[in-house]
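Researcher: I've been going back and forth with a colleague about how Acyl-CoA dehydrogenase, middle domain protein 4 might be arranged in three dimensions. Neither of us has a model we trust, so I'd like an independent prediction. The organism is Achromobacter xylosoxidans, in case that matters for your notes. Sequence below.
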Amino acid sequence: MNMQATLAWPFFEPRHRDLLRQADAWLEARPAWTAPQSRAEMDEQCRRLVAGMGQAGLLAHAVPDPFDASARIDTRAVCLLRDRLAQHGALFDFAFAMQGLGSAAIALDGTPAQRQRYLAPARAGRRIAAFALSEAQAGSDVGALSCAARQDGDAYVLDGEKTWISNGGIADHYVVFARDPRSAGAKGISAFIVDADTPGLEIAERIDVLSPHPLATLKFTACRVAGGQSLGEPGQGFKLAMRTLDIFRTSVGAAALGFSRRALQEATQHALQREMFGKTLADFQLTQARLSQMATQTDASALLVYRAAWARDAGQGSSRDAAMAKLAATEHAQQVVDAALQMHGGLGVRTGHIIEQLYRDVRALRIYEGATEVQHLIIGRDLLREARERSAPAAALPSTPGPNRATPNQERA
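Model: Here is an independent structure prediction for Acyl-CoA dehydrogenase, middle domain protein 4. You can compare it with whatever you and your colleague have in mind.
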């Protein structure tokens, strides 16, 4: 099912159809993304994309209005854009999504001054944002982070490292999560806005990965951050980080959905054109069955993603909805892309081919913003919590009958 057909579902409003037309018009003027030949080229591509999306008004859907503290992210809009941008190229999706993730914590808990200083230029594409949470020993286990924030008068001094930071090396500011060194676990974690040129902050390493995008390890050495750069309430950083990730977790599924759509499109066209044994690949029942499976997985992902997005926008969303959407869409996308590559044969593993690119692009989505295994835990625990709540009233009944209640034997009689 293409995106126009998806938009006919009751999850959407006319403004969402207008948004897709706006995105399509912007993308038509830009060639599909190909892997950069150098890190410098990649960085420059990312900067241009952020600037272009800002000028086109697309970033207004990822970065809330800085002058409206009540402004909320339209999750359906974010998902539609990630879905469409991912079909065009992985870096398009990356540039859009990371601008939103790096701004969301400021939108949630920033002061009016912080919102105006950082959100306005990020929304316009003039300033690149980043979200610095992960550490070498604290990925899925956020409570294990060790980057320290020691209060010193009216300021804070940060020491430690952050790694796997998207936009690391090109960001103008980072939302950094660090803990009071006297605390343990999730307690004592606070958030800070750290400008990239702050003394004591350095890019310790640029990290190269399967799907090229700006990524780095940050090192903080006696990095002094003014008290006015602290974000939200002290010690509440863990909750802020989780609230931020909850906003964008469903949209990771949308990006995976975009990769699935593109892989299915490429596989279908290839099957119609590839001649084999006097027929086309599409004439074989095995090919038809495989395409059927790919299409079903893609549509199932779309239903879960846009149900979760609609529910969140309607104030009915849950962590389980988002977890199911991300889990299904990313796992399905991996399978759909792999099937498309198999169908392309040797062509599918040729460097620079669209299917080879998709194969590299899709893999990380099963890891970041909550690995597949973490999503299973979220879903399973929520199901068990509901089951316990349903059984609680029965468990609370008295073990002996009350004055107006018959014993089990009397009831059977």
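Researcher: What would you highlight for our discussion?
Model: I'd start with this: Residues 399-413 have pLDDT under 50 and may be disordered. After that, consider the following. The first strand starts at residue 129 and ends at 132.
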